[in-house]
Amino acid sequence: MRVATGVPGFDALVEGGLLTDRLYIVSGPPGSGKTTFASQFVTKGAIDGQTSLFLSLHETEDELVTDMTRFEFGFDKAVGSGRVKFLNVFDSEAKRLLSPSSRAGGEFPDSVENMTNQIVSFVDNKGIDRLVIDSAMLLEYYFSDELDHFIRFLTALKRADATTLVISEMTDPTSYSDEHYLAHGVIFLHNYLEDGGMQRGVQIIKMRGTEIDSDIHAAAFSDRGFRVDPESTIGE
N or C: which end of the chain has fewer CB within 10 A? Predict the structure, then answer.
């Protein structure tokens, strides 16, 4: 089963949508559209009657809603509907959810499993269909000294019954990191100056279970958010 992303033109590149309950990485340099892409993703979920959890390291709910009001895809209405649960990692509720301390009685063997079980349980118990983590820096914040913990966390997160997007700040699509190898799919958003203007593009680096090409397809911002032209390819 596949789910629509809510990003016009993108789903044509991935056989109609993302395979459900899988982990995807959305990478790209600052300003390339990653957070907008993720916001359209959870908005589409709300429109389709699904519930989403948006975990953010960078912004509060008010800040993100304000940022997205410049577009007309309805993010503010999705949040207002209650279908999008937003948590900033420094809020008290998120701290309880992500606390790496082991629970009393030794229910989980270490902090990684504790945190993973808390997130997976939250997703399952709250009926979360779509999960966004903005960004991979959030995970590195908790596991900065233990690369093995970071890898184990992402691996375990893949068992959650939700279609998951993890945003990753990466400027070079040829420089892969651990999350790219672990994910079911990797989407790279390009932006660079060319001929005196900003050129934007989307490239599917990896997508298990889906026939893709490796071309960079033209993309742009419009009043309805981030959009892709699946018929147009560009060079770097």
Answer: N
Between 171 and 230, the more confident residue is 230
Q: Choose among 63, 1, 73, 77: nearest CA to 37.
A: 73
- Assess contact for 56 and 88: CB atoms under 8 A: yes
The chain-wide mean pLDDT, for the chain, equals 84
Q: What one-letter code names the amino acid at 83?
A: R
Domains, the chain, with CATH or none: 2-234 (3.40.50.300)
Q: Give dist(CA 81, CA 170) in Å, integer.
A: 33
Rounded to an integer, what is the distance from CA 144 to the centroid of its chain? 20
Q: How many Cβ atoms sit within 10 Å of the Cβ of residue 37? A: 25
Cis peptide leading into 175, omega within 30 of 0?
no
The pTM of the full predicted model, rounded to 2 decimals, is 0.86
